[in-house]
Amino acid sequence: MFLSIEKLISNITPDRLDPAAAKALQEALGGQFGEMRTMMQYQFQNFNFRGNAKPFRDLVRGVGTEEIGHVELVANTINMLLDGASAYGGIATQPDTLPLANALNGDGNIHHFLVAGQSARPVDAAGNPWTALYVYDSGNLVLNMLYNLMLEATGRLQKCRLYEMSNNKAFRSTVSYLIVRDLAHEKVFAKALEVLGVNWGKVLPVPKIDTSGMPEVRELESRNLHNQQWTFAKDNSDMAKIFSGPSPFGDGELETIEGLPDGFAIPELSERAEEFAPGLDQELLGQVGKTMTSPSTTGTQRASAARNT
Amino acid sequence: MFLSIEKLISNITPDRLDPAAAKALQEALGGQFGEMRTMMQYQFQNFNFRGNAKPFRDLVRGVGTEEIGHVELVANTINMLLDGASAYGGIATQPDTLPLANALNGDGNIHHFLVAGQSARPVDAAGNPWTALYVYDSGNLVLNMLYNLMLEATGRLQKCRLYEMSNNKAFRSTVSYLIVRDLAHEKVFAKALEVLGVNWGKVLPVPKIDTSGMPEVRELESRNLHNQQWTFAKDNSDMAKIFSGPSPFGDGELETIEGLPDGFAIPELSERAEEFAPGLDQELLGQVGKTMTSPSTTGTQRASAARNT
Amino acid sequence: MFLSIEKLISNITPDRLDPAAAKALQEALGGQFGEMRTMMQYQFQNFNFRGNAKPFRDLVRGVGTEEIGHVELVANTINMLLDGASAYGGIATQPDTLPLANALNGDGNIHHFLVAGQSARPVDAAGNPWTALYVYDSGNLVLNMLYNLMLEATGRLQKCRLYEMSNNKAFRSTVSYLIVRDLAHEKVFAKALEVLGVNWGKVLPVPKIDTSGMPEVRELESRNLHNQQWTFAKDNSDMAKIFSGPSPFGDGELETIEGLPDGFAIPELSERAEEFAPGLDQELLGQVGKTMTSPSTTGTQRASAARNT
Amino acid sequence: MFLSIEKLISNITPDRLDPAAAKALQEALGGQFGEMRTMMQYQFQNFNFRGNAKPFRDLVRGVGTEEIGHVELVANTINMLLDGASAYGGIATQPDTLPLANALNGDGNIHHFLVAGQSARPVDAAGNPWTALYVYDSGNLVLNMLYNLMLEATGRLQKCRLYEMSNNKAFRSTVSYLIVRDLAHEKVFAKALEVLGVNWGKVLPVPKIDTSGMPEVRELESRNLHNQQWTFAKDNSDMAKIFSGPSPFGDGELETIEGLPDGFAIPELSERAEEFAPGLDQELLGQVGKTMTSPSTTGTQRASAARNT
Amino acid sequence: MFLSIEKLISNITPDRLDPAAAKALQEALGGQFGEMRTMMQYQFQNFNFRGNAKPFRDLVRGVGTEEIGHVELVANTINMLLDGASAYGGIATQPDTLPLANALNGDGNIHHFLVAGQSARPVDAAGNPWTALYVYDSGNLVLNMLYNLMLEATGRLQKCRLYEMSNNKAFRSTVSYLIVRDLAHEKVFAKALEVLGVNWGKVLPVPKIDTSGMPEVRELESRNLHNQQWTFAKDNSDMAKIFSGPSPFGDGELETIEGLPDGFAIPELSERAEEFAPGLDQELLGQVGKTMTSPSTTGTQRASAARNT
Amino acid sequence: MFLSIEKLISNITPDRLDPAAAKALQEALGGQFGEMRTMMQYQFQNFNFRGNAKPFRDLVRGVGTEEIGHVELVANTINMLLDGASAYGGIATQPDTLPLANALNGDGNIHHFLVAGQSARPVDAAGNPWTALYVYDSGNLVLNMLYNLMLEATGRLQKCRLYEMSNNKAFRSTVSYLIVRDLAHEKVFAKALEVLGVNWGKVLPVPKIDTSGMPEVRELESRNLHNQQWTFAKDNSDMAKIFSGPSPFGDGELETIEGLPDGFAIPELSERAEEFAPGLDQELLGQVGKTMTSPSTTGTQRASAARNT
After folding, report:
1. Which pLDDT tens digit goes with each residue over A47-63?
2. Does an interface of 3+ CB pairs under 8 Å exist between A and B?
3. Which residue, B240, D128, E57, E213, is most buried by CB atoms nearer than 10 A?
4. pLDDT tier at D222, thresholds 50, 70, 90
């Protein structure tokens, strides 16, 4: 079973709206090497785990549970880049305005506006829907570890390429966070293989990417985030039996941490009339709003304010 | 963020191996109306939630988090039906035996043996891989609630059909559990629509399925499981602002319960040599096994014993 | 625009239930060379027709409209082969019976029982869903005619192979009808190419299949059905400007006929409780049934009777 | 069986060429909630109809037949937006001109130019091919009605979003027509559910979209088009037994009308040499043109003239 | 078996970088009528060839082997259009530069930059991955020949449309080469059908495209390339028993040539640091480079120089 | 460019017909880890190779060219298992026989009979068509080598599972050959990584499968086939700069061999009338057969004879 915690795993730095960046960032969500895939792949390896090497299972389960939070993080970041990308004009009073005309610009993903109401979709940067064909679980532990290492390494490569595509701060804060976590996850699986007998020598991390020009990444690494792994488990986990000792990449000491990090407030999205979203009219709002809603104006205003700065 | 709890949401009654039933049960895992879909659909609706009607968001988040545990439950049940479906003969000593010959029987899914090593796959009963095309999130709250109601109702219809396909107790214990939980989830979304103004009259639950001939279902309903909804949240949830009062189907009183149920031990799968799974040979086991594994023999033996009874 | 006529284009000879034949016949419905494809391909060529060669457009439109009726015919035939393939036992009174156990037999398509309630699905014989990737419309008239000829010829080849797979009379009556109509449609497009300058010489029909061993086919050809083409148009059609004169295959005289054939009664499917289909319980039936339904018992009884003969 | 009528169900107001709008409008043709899907879904529900509630079948059949005409309407509208979007330069005399260079602009769909010769394709706005995975037919009448209602409501939501994307008059005339017809179809299925016992109260239509700022929509509603349903059947239909009385949305009186509306002339597309379409050269035209073509110059000239105004 | 020859089948004229042209050219690589498809289709027809008409098999095998070289040619051409489309800035020294920002431009395919490191992908111009659904092999020789003719003709039509989209010389040199080879291949299959009895009369080539305005095409045809077919076989081939005599299109004499053409040097792609490709850092290069690499600087410089001219 | 050699890379031991084994073997042809995938993946890595480390390119090119021959081998083996799986009865003289009735047996793939005329298809063992989504080419050399190693290792795992499914000698001869070649290819990529700095220690080969109970495999290894790699290149190749020295798995000495192995005669498939394949009737055969065919009766008879032994 799983439990939700109403916190985001990393903070999204507010910045300008950017539908083209939102489209690109979909690769990290629904792409072949994105977070939906790592989440599903590790969960299937967890559910189907075979044999009594419990530390390996705890390791796969822990990382797989972190990935659900990564899916949440990327979806929220895409929403921050999209929400309001249409300039609302009000169709009732200005019939000739085109509040969603931006959607026709080929730089973005038209489905963001037409299907999803300016929010994230389970697709990649080219618009292809995520497919379970991506999920790898061979039943063989060594192969699974090797594949997972390659998966994290490719994911990190693509995120480094994403980093170079846009300097949008919201985009980069999440991309940088994922670059560092993918590095930590590479170590998780490299370490697992090391326990099983591989001496990686010179080729790790794969690829050896110089991220010294990415200040957001350096800042996170300065806090040792690239050597830490939370268990994301309520119960005891044997993850530390594998994830400990010197980093297989020779860049510090691995730390297994019980539980999960503190987290950050989840951004709130306000109503967006031109998308008929959420589609609660005054009459319905009258009933529902009064009796049930929490006062969330502050959060919304903060998010809006941040963008306009 | 999310946290894993090392417990299964429902108990799987041990029974005979049954690859044909395992193949059928895949519909409840990777089918168009299966648990991977409800999980992903509700999580996307959660991440992309718009407007300040927090109780609705908490409701979608809570059910969506329960669904991750359902994916886990169905995967484990499929594994119980599959694991050992090949009679291991040992290729080294008996070169002419065919330990995986069962896989050629058209009643099962050959990929269960060939690709996954006798465990669950992210596909439906006809072998089609799960696709994100299934995920519905329109950005419009009322439409989302209506679609979710229809989704749960169709899921429940298919599970009632599954119930009639096999009397395997492992199969039926999980199918029955899901029939009852789908009913509870139907109520979640029907109640949400009721709050928004629908008076359902005669047509609910949709379809009106007589489950009085399904004793496992009745037993679970006698414990009011069809009227309960856990929040599956670590923090406070406003779910109860919607999910309370009389059932929209007139069959009891709705209960929102903080947190999650107690759960059951997760079954363990032993090594399966004919699948080269997990593929840790003696040399590797020598090193890994001694230092890291937990004593899990009891659990494994219990599971095996149960099957042979 | 289009108008529906409550008649089936060909008669389905009653015979035994046969889920394996139903699965095979799906190729003629949702296969790459099945009726959904011809229908969609010709309609797209019709909607996108370019240039003022109206007789060609009328020809494509006419055949394309006939194909909608072919989709209807094949779907109804599949239903005749499936409906009742489960032996209904009544779950309320006999909890241990397994009314849908047949669905676990690998010879059939499990989705027929699990998803569709014993009726047709938009998939092929291997269970792959129909995809619009099949639709060919190049904008170039000659290429379209050539492709259509090849499409009909391949469709006919596959139906001749189907004929050899089962001697079920319901199955064969529809397969034979389609073999003859595909031949007529081959002539439609071969004739169109002939008008444009091709002298086919020896290779038509492609493939040159000897159907003299298929009595149902011969009987239909004895009525010249392989040389006829209805316009399936309410208005005047110029189809006859192309489809007339000697058959390009040297086997008779082509006839263009205004309108559409007389047709046959559409079979009725009765309620099927084990599928929860149609899912109208007594209470709802009480209201709906009394005020609205037509007396259709006769038709249903006839269909049932035919099967039991 | 079906019959074609050489008329378009709604008039397309002539306006400027607009490949970006054509790309967007593909969602209404080949999208998950577009007309190909409603057509196929209702036809499958029609072919597979079970039980003796004939009025429900007639209702599904009637709307499903109307939808074939909607597919035709949207395809023709896309063609009006595309045809001539390349400026023809004549490759023989001006070898360096690039008549199809517009196709490289990311705002349009390159397949419109490269594959289809400036006409409609069976894909959605993001270029994904239509798939039969979209078709829902559970065999359960109540669920089918509920799903159809949700389908029409989502289709209408997306069309309202389309309306806000472009003020192209050709685009908007068809989008507006579909918004109104989707509303009528929502009522068809809402009414069906009402007959079965649902009292909808406040949430219908779902979503409650204020279309008062869409003058084309208002104009059509002023003619009661949102409360009318033709039977699109040649024979008697029992549709009126359900579709009559006050609108379930409280906005007028429902009318079932026998047959089909008058319709409008289908636009003609002239030859487009840069696409090699239709590809009849002078020699072939010499033979075919003289003997077979109808004088259609007037129609073509009118269409061209309208665009140049 | 197959043997590789380190030569390109046609020369790529150097010209400017052009990601939009690269995206369009993908249709000729991974499109429904592109080179991956012809290659796979003919190879399957070759492997599955039935009956003793060896000349037909040799013909299919020869053309199918040429097509592997066409896949290589188109991939290399796409690479020439892409490689360097990002202006490298060096992330270490200039942290704010965006070397891959071009990728966000909707005119190109973002996966070219994000997934493939500025090189070719197995997808079409709209980004859809190639699928084996395209492969046609009916087992029937005549149908296969007819389908192959249609396939080559449609491929040529699309390449003629591509020709009109861009005057980039690299793009056009390959497109023109393929236009001529597709014509030769049309003749291969038309001739095969002619041997079997078809007199094509007026409609060939289909479509009759006037390429007199395409000088690159004329130049190649002046060398009779449109009437030649290499056997691409190391052993004797009976291809000439079919491919000889007058062209079925009346434009010259067919020639079967043993073996394969001379070919051209394959372009070399240099390291591209902003893509982390090839990802060999100095340390690795130190070891690998010194001992193993051939001096290829000349080739690389030539390619670069050509572009800058 | 590429050249075909009319030889099969390995010999197929004749044995009984076996459609279920043919269906299973499709995984090795069109599966996610089958030969079509390795072929396409390595060819794309070859075409898109970047940087001047020519030995790596030659290595990828050589293995990628071998894989085309593997596709040929598996297709031919499937054909040997299928061809004649229907017992031909002759429809003209015995109208009630069902020559293709075997196709309705769920153990086989119905498309083998219905679509392909008893020959191989580009699909996997579950019938899913091959998709280019499988192709991995990141542009990063180290990642490509790592992925290729994992790909070969998973392919070998699946083939070892296949080995255990059937003792059909034709099936096993090809499966065993591929097990050994996949091992050699694992070494190719492991060696490449070793050159780059990895010391694999205990975990190679991955997985460590004990094949001592597979006599066909041992026999091939006794000839050192698991340590050899042909260049499959007509020209000089630098492959030996990497592939030489001790095996990274400590089981012998690596050998790079110029060119390609001798090969074996390609089996011939005779006419199959019940599939209308090849569909050349007497009249056509009269003309074509006399003038063009080679005397191949001997080969055909030998193949048939082998089966009947």
Report:
1. 999 988 889 999 999 99
2. yes
3. E57
4. very high
Q: What is the pLDDT of residues D159-200, one digit of tens each?
A: 999 999 999 999 999 999 999 999 999 999 999 999 989 999
**What is the model's pLDDT at position B72?**
98
Mutate to test the interface with C, among B154, B165, B178 (most CBs of C within 10 A): B165
Nearest CA in chain E to F236: E6
Q: Report the C-alpha gap between B292 and A191 in whole angstroms.
A: 14
**Residue at token pair 């019938």:** F127
Q: Which of D142, D157, D207 sits opposite B203 (nearest CB)?
A: D142
Question: Does E263 touch chain F if contact means CB atoms closer than 8 Å?
Answer: yes
- Best residue in B52, B63, B111, B131 to probe A by mutation, most A CBs within 10 Å? B52
Could you tell me if the ipTM is greater than 0.95? no
Q: How distant is the alpha carbon of residue D249 from its chain centre?
A: 24
Would you state the pLDDT for residue C238? 94
Q: Give the nearest chain D residue to A98 (CA atoms).
A: D164
**pLDDT for res C147:** 97
Tell whether D150 lies on the interface with B, counting CB pairs under 8 A.
Answer: yes
Sorting pLDDT into bands at 50, 70 and 90, what band is E229?
A: very high
User: How far from the centroid of its chain's Cα atoms is residue A26's Cα?
Assistant: 10
Contacts of C161 in chain F (CB under 8 A): 100, 113-114, 274-276
Choose the closest CB to C99 out of B27, B164, B214: B164
The answer to whether the beta carbons of residues C108 and C100 sit under 8 Å apart is no
Is residue C1 a contact partner of residue C259, using CB atoms and an 8 Å limit? no
pLDDT digits (tens, 9 = 90+) for B32-67: 999 999 999 999 999 999 988 889 999 999 999 999
pLDDT score for C306: 36
Here the tokens at position E202 are: 């007026």
Tell me the pLDDT band of E47, cut-offs 50, 70 and 90.
very high
Positive or negative, the CA dihedral A188, A192, A193, A194 is positive
Q: Which two tokens stand for residue F287?
A: 């003309």
C190: which chain E residues are within 8 Å (Cβ-Cβ)? none
Give the residue on D whose Cα is nearest the Cα of E107: D106
Q: Please compute, for residue A160, the number of CA atoms within 13 A of its CA located in the half-sphere on the CB side.
A: 30
Surface of A (205-224) touching F: CB under 8 A: 206-208
SS3 D228: strand
Q: Quick count: other Cβ atoms within 10 Å of Cβ E223?
A: 10
Residue B89 in this model has a pLDDT that exceeds 80: no
Strand, helix or coil at B81? helix
Model confidence at C235, pLDDT cuts 50, 70, 90, reads confident
Predicted confidence at residue B87, as pLDDT, reads 59
Q: C90 is written with which tokens? A: 């009544």
Distance CA C148, CA D115 (A): 17
Which pLDDT does position A92 carry in this prediction? Answer: 34
Pair F304, F80: CB distance under 8 Å: no
Domains of chain C: 19-276 (1.20.1260.10)
Amino acid identity of D25? L
Listed in sequence order, the DSSP H helices in chain F are 19-30, 35-47, 54-82, 110-114, 141-163, 169-195, 215-222, 282-292, 297-308
Helix, strand or coil for residue E191?
Answer: helix
